[in-house]
Every structure is written in structure tokens, then in C-alpha cells.
Design brief:
single chain; Rossmann fold; Argininosuccinate synthetase, chain A, domain 2; 14 helices; binds arginine
């Protein structure tokens, strides 16, 4: 008896996921492996990947375009939550995993598979995100993770693959481990493993070095509806169009490079480089628009919700009851978040230079220091007396 009969494998076309196919069949007695590659806008040719899976022994090789849903249902929700892990990482990789898990489960159900598989090792966050998301969506499916158990080195993995007709990588493969989609690139390993080494310029693809960015700033007006970015300079954009447009524009100005030491869920600190131009600009602009529209207490309370939300997404709990409850809170706060934010893109910075909204709580009559000031200054004295009363009493009895 094998570990499963029919398996749907998350497939990227790389050596590890390719070797998973014969490994599942020959070592773990799986009868049939169906591969599934998700198109998340990684820009790679997915057609050769489809064939590679078949050559490696898959009975069926599926490619599913989920780009639209990725942005609409995952990235835009993260923008509404101003989600930056450890205040910096816009979760480009983390947000893709629950969506991949969703289509893995749907495919397993459609094809009558009894298990799902992925090629993650035991050291990363992605294994957690896949396993927990799949369990949440269909707890009766088994989850197989060959690379977590096989204990083969890189060379051994390649040699194992060659026995089953999986070619070794032709060109000397990149020393970096790169995950890429519409939201950006996550880059680790190679020389980056030394946290004291400056990232070489060659690792970047989406963002220019500051030395090469334009010497004149570029202004953009981003329009939001219910906290979702919908227009650029007055022009409606599709979700994908919005991200692509800002990746190009902000990348051209060197915006969205992040170099950080990050705390993984499994307790390891890792050095990650990200480039995420569009998300960097959109979260900044969104947060700024909220500051014009939301009350002070909602703004402040939401910061705590955002922190928890971000950790849950990072830690693989996208489909969990607390996350769903936080979603409801966040959605409620976005009802009035309509308006535009003017952003100046210049030399690695997205600088917010203006914001406007029909729902603005900013009241010029109250804020002004000019002659038309409507604020009742005398009211302040009584307010301060009551506000400071406990502090005053505390000080008195402490004397
Ligand atoms: N550390 C990031 C995360 O957990 C990205 C990991 C992606 N993989 C990579 N090869 N850099 O979301």
C-alpha cells in the first residue's frame, strides 16, 4: 500500500518539484500524479512547464491562470489591511500560498484525488502555509511533502531525477532562491546568506538602482474605492493592470527594494531581499487616505488588528476563524475609504504629497490658524480640567 493513490502536486517546473513526481510514484507507491502549476504572473513560460511535468511522469499536467483572483481577493485585501510583516515585507510570497492551496484542493476534489503534495522543505514558511490552508479547506485530504523527508542533497536530487529522465539544470543554476509573482520577487541564499554583505545589483529585476533612476520626479494620482485601488491619473485600471502599471512606474524610480533579517515561523532568522514596487506604493497611499477619513479611534485600533492580521497571513492562517473575523472588521472600516492620493515617485521614495476625499474628516474651519477659525478655544479649559483630573489627584496624594 502506498501513501496515497492519486495525488495533486503543486508544480513549479524546478528540479525539486519535478523529482517529486517519480519519487511519489516509486518510493511512496502513489499510482497517479497530477501536477498543477499556478499562473501568478511569474512571467515564466508555463507551456514548457506543462510538458516537463508529463515527461517527468505526471498523468496530467494542469496550468491554471489565477492572476486576477490573486490580486482581487488576496493582494487587495492585504492593502486594505496595510499588511507589512515586521513593518516591511508586503507578503508577496505569503499571499500566493493560500490561493495555490485553494486550487490544489479544488483540483483534488474534481479529480477524486486522496492527497495533495508540494515540494517544500522543512525549514520554510511555505510548507506551513500549504499544509494549514489545505487542511482548512478539506481536512480529509492527505498532505505529502517528499522534500521534507527525502534527505537528499542538491546533487543527489539531480542524480535521482536523471534516473527518471529529468534533465539536470542546463545552465549553472542561479545561486539564489527566488520566488516571483505579480506582487514582486523574494530572493535569498547565495552571498545573501551573509547578512553583512550588500546585495549585488544583479539580483534585482523589477527595480532600478538609484543611480539609474530619472532625475525628475513623476507624479501619480491613485484613486481608491472602499480601500481598493481602482484608478491611476483618473483612468480605471483592472486589478492586474493596476499592479503592472505601478510595478513599472515605481520600479523605474527604484522604489520597493527591501533588505531585511526576518523571523520565520519555524524559529529561524533569514536574510531576505524583496522587490515589491506596486505594493510598497499602494500600502503607503492607502494608509494615508485612511488617515484623512477614519476616526482617530478606528485608525488607532486598526493598527493592532493589522499587526495580528499580518502575522496570521505570514504564519499560514489565511483560512482561519480569527482571520475571517479580522476580515469583517477591516471590511467595515473600508466603507468610506474613497478618494485619491497624489504620490511623487523619486529616487527610491514614494512620497505622498496630497490626498482628497468626499468623506474627508479634515475640517478646515477647525484646523486653521487663520481668522475664520471656528474652534471654541474656551471649551479647551474645561476639557483639560476633566481630562487631567486623575493625574492631578494622583500627584496630590503622592506628595
Ligand atoms: N521569506 C518569505 C516568506 O516567507 C519568502 C520566501 C520565498 N522563497 C524564496 N525563495 N525567497 O514569505
Amino acid at each position: 500500500m502506498g501513501r496515497a493513490k492519486k495525488v495533486v502536486l503543486a508544480y513549479s517546473g524546478g528540479v525539486d518539484t519535478s523529482v517529486c513526481i517519480p519519487y511519489l510514484k516509486h518510493e511512496w507507491g502513489v499510482e497517479e500524479v497530477i501536477t498543477l502549476a499556478a499562473d501568478l504572473g511569474q512571467g515564466e513560460e508555463l507551456e514548457p512547464i506543462r510538458e516537463k511535468a508529463l515527461k517527468s511522469g505526471a498523468s496530467e499536467s494542469l496550468v491554471i491562470d489565477v492572476r486576477e483572483s490573486f490580486i482581487r481577493d488576496y493582494a487587495f485585501a492585504a492593502i486594505q489591511a496595510n499588511a507589512l510583516y515586521e513593518n516591511r515585507y508586503p507578503l508577496g510570497t505569503a499571499l500566493a500560498r493560500p490561493l495555490i492551496a485553494k486550487i490544489l484542493v479544488e483540483t483534488a476534489e474534481k479529480y477524486g484525488a486522496d492527497a495533495i503534495a508540494h515540494g517544500c522543505t522543512g525549514k520554510g514558511n511555505d510548507q506551513v502555509r500549504f499544509d494549514v490552508s489545505c487542511a482548512a479547506l478539506n481536512p480529509s485530504l492527505k498532505i505529502l511533502a517528499p522534500a521534507r523527508e527525502w534527505g537528499m542533497s542538491r546533487e543527489e536530487t539531480i542524480a535521482y531525477g536523471e534516473r527518471f529522465g529529468i534533465p539536470a539544470p542546463v545552465k549553472k543554476s542561479s545561486p539564489y532562491s527566488i520566488d516571483k509573482n505579480l506582487l514582486g520577487r523574494s530572493i535569498e541564499a547565495g552571498v545573501l546568506e551573509d547578512p553583512n554583505v550588500e546585495p549585488p545589483e544583479e539580483i534585482y529585476e523589477m527595480t532600478k538602482a538609484i543611480a539609474d533612476t530619472p532625475d525628475v520626479p513623476e507624479y501619480m494620482e491613485i484613486g481608491f474605492r472602499n480601500g481598493i485601488p481602482v484608478t491611476i491619473n483618473g483612468e480605471e485600471k483592472s486589478p492586474i493592470g493596476m499592479i503592472e502599471c505601478l510595478n513599472t512606474a515605481a520600479g523605474n524610480h527604484g522604489i520597493g527594494r527591501i533588505d531585511m533579517i526576518e523571523n520565520r515561523l519555524v524559529g529561524i532568522k533569514s536574510r531576505e531581499i524583496y522587490e515589491s514596487p506596486a505594493m510598497t506604493v499602494l500600502i503607503q497611499a492607502h494608509r494615508d487616505l485612511e488617515s484623512l477619513i477614519l476616526t482617530a479611534d478606528v485608525t488607532h485600533y486598526k493598527r493592532g488588528i493589522e499587526e495580528t492580521y499580518t502575522q496570521m497571513v505570514y504564519n499560514g492562517l489565511w483560512y482561519s476563524p480569527l482571520k475571517a473575523a479580522l476580515d469583517a472588521f477591516i471590511q467595515k472600516t473600508q466603507e468610506r475609504v474613497n478618494g485619491t492620493v497624489r504620490v511623487k515617485l523619486y529616487k527610491g521614495n514614494a512620497i505622498i504629497v496630497g490626498r482628497s476625499s468626499g468623506n474627508s474628516m479634515y475640517t478646515p474651519d477647525l484646523a486653521t490658524y487663520g481668522a475664520d477659525d471656528k474652534f471654541d478655544h474656551k471649551a479647551a479649559e474645561g476639557f483639560i480640567y476633566v481630562w487631567g483630573l486623575p493625574t492631578r489627584i494622583w500627584a496630590q496624594i503622592g506628595k
